[in-house]
Specification:
174 residues, alpha/beta, Collagenase (Catalytic Domain), 5-stranded mixed beta sheet, 49% helix
Length: 174
Amino acid sequence: MTFMKKHPFLMVEYHSSVKLLPSEQRQLKKWLDYASPVVLELLKQKIIPAKDIESIQVSLLICGEQKIRKLNRDFRHKDKVTDVLSFPSHEDLRKTKVTENNLFLGDLAICHQKVRQQAKQFNISYMDEFIHLFFHGLIHLMGYDHEISEEEERVMQLWEKLALDNFSKKKKGA
């Protein structure tokens, strides 16, 4: 399944190599709509130094454990299954003056089985865990990396909390 969903600010090109339930597909589309103003809010909070961005584009793959393990092994040299991988189109947007009006952030891959496992582990819904991983990946695409240092991890967690808090407000208000 593939679709291109245009949001008011966030455009997500979505592909799935795993079978999602129709209810999951509908909810995914709806929640990506809610994510658009959240991403805009992150930019207003200066997560990256950018002005005059009209839209942000992201390519999203929802895949299985074998595919994400292969991607992780091939590109990060880590032979293990992970929950989300980010492949930024810019080296570090925090250090780059963004001049593009329509900014392509890069590619995300989210492992369907890991979302299910972690949702169960954290006693939350599939979609709550999915959107957490989506924002986590987006923040990586913007140049943040929690594996660099404790300070970087703290900063990234603050951005994630802001994104998830704003997302919860958008979801409740809809």
